[in-house]
Amino acid sequence: MSFDVQKIREDFPILKRSVNGYPLVYLDNAATSQKPQEVIDCIVAYYSTYNANIHRGVHTLSQEATEAYEEARKKIQKHFHIQYPEEVIFTSGTTHGINLVANGFSSLLNEGDEILVSAMEHHSNIVPWQMLCERTGAILKVIPMNEKGELVMEVFENLLTEKTQLVFVNHVSNALGTINPIEEIIQKSHKVGAAVLIDGAQSCAHIKPNLQTLDADFYVASAHKMCGPTGVGMLYGKKEWLEKLPPYQGGGEMIKEVTFEKTTYAGLPHKFEAGTPNIAGGIAFGAAIDYLHKIGFEAIANYENELLEYATSELLKIKGLKIYGTSKKKTSVISFNLEGIHPFDIGTIVDKLGIAVRTGHHCAQPIMDFYKIPGTVRASFSFYNTKEEVDRLVKAVQKAQMMLS
Ligand SMILES: *Cc1c(COP(=O)(O)O)cnc(C)c1O
């Protein structure tokens, strides 16, 4: 079956708009993806036909909303190959999920315990661990990367000791596109008894993981990176871990019984879901997963790979253009700079031509420090982008180069 990108583009109303007089070319998918009509309709349907609070009322609307929300949880469970639905915690996104786990470990870590993070983490996977170290006296150590933007696995193995309690690494780097060898990282970490959290925020739109065979202890993702709405995400944790961790926030929905002397907590997953959640968002997260399944993750990966190869070779034809992140295993992210030109200036000029790319440090300053650059231009492709759009990017970058040098 051939991949009909033009047909797919019709599912995304935003792709019809123009920017600064040009048809929009949206190449900032690593920051957030666009939403298909089905997902938008799902949100509208919730608010216009069965908006009610969940898990509380006996009335019909509340039952319908609860059912739809729990149905979405099951879709997430199935999609990520998770054993039990109660191992799926709804969050407001990846950042929330990481903070929930980091907070929970405050009471489990001792002074001198060690935490490993990779050199290519998003700030949201660095700062919560630094805060955790401050609270507990644990020590943060960094798994370094090489010039290609790959983790140096020999150093990682040397860093692993019986002191290592936790290892945190993203499946895919949002700034470089590198796909990290998480299977190996998980396996080796478990040998010394360390728990592993995988940040799937950047991979979830491209790779469908099997969390049961992967054997990660925790996995986090954001719906908005996979065609779903903002403000909702998921945390997977192995049941044993989620039972061990204390609740993150107190409030309604997370309790079994409350008196002023003592409160007992609700069971999983409600223990971690205090307060009224993003109900419409959760339901639409499920709709986004349904949509992606209709296209198929294998088809998505094949097509995006094709785009990546085409864009890489076309961009490299531009003299003075350097790509950061040249690992063999990459998703469709290209971070680059033009010699002697600030990335911000390129971003501004290509925007005038209707093209949306990201410029800056992409919430990964340590990577920029490693390459000794202020930032990069990042073009990140989704399955609804086309080769014609790549051509337009290349032309626009050439034009920017001419204007700026
Ligand atoms: C986007 C992203 C995050 C943060 O996700 P939020 O949805 O902003 O919480 C974390 N890590 C990586 C690798 C990302 O790409």
Write up this protein.
The model has no long low-confidence stretch (mean pLDDT 95). The strands form five sheets. This protein has a seven-stranded mixed beta sheet, with helices on both faces. The protein has 405 residues and is an alpha/beta fold. It starts with a helix and ends with a helix. A hairpin with an 8-residue loop joins β13 and β14 (333-338). It is 39% helix and 17% strand. It folds into two domains: 5-30 and 297-404, Aspartate Aminotransferase, domain 1, CATH 3.90.1150.10; 40-293, 3-Layer(aba) Sandwich (Aspartate Aminotransferase, domain 2). The structure holds pyridoxal-5'-phosphate (PLP). Pyridoxal-5'-phosphate is lined by residues 93-95, 122, 124-125, 170, 174, 199, 201-202, 222, 225.
CATH architecture of the largest domain: 3-Layer(aba) Sandwich
The unique ligands bound to this protein are:
pyridoxal-5'-phosphate
Q: Number of domains in the coordinates?
A: 2
Classified by CATH, the class of the largest domain is Alpha Beta
- Structural class, from helix and strand content? alpha/beta
Going across the major beta sheet, what is the strand order? 4-10-9-8-7-5-6
CATH superfamily of the largest domain: Type I PLP-dependent aspartate aminotransferase-like (Major domain)
Biggest pleated sheet: 7 strands, mixed
Strand segment count: 17
Strand content: 15-25%
The amount of helix comes to 25-40%
Silhouette:
globular
Our count of helices gives 14
CATH topology of the largest domain: Aspartate Aminotransferase, domain 2
> Measured on Cα atoms, how large is the radius of gyration?
22 Å
- Low-pLDDT runs of 5+ residues are none
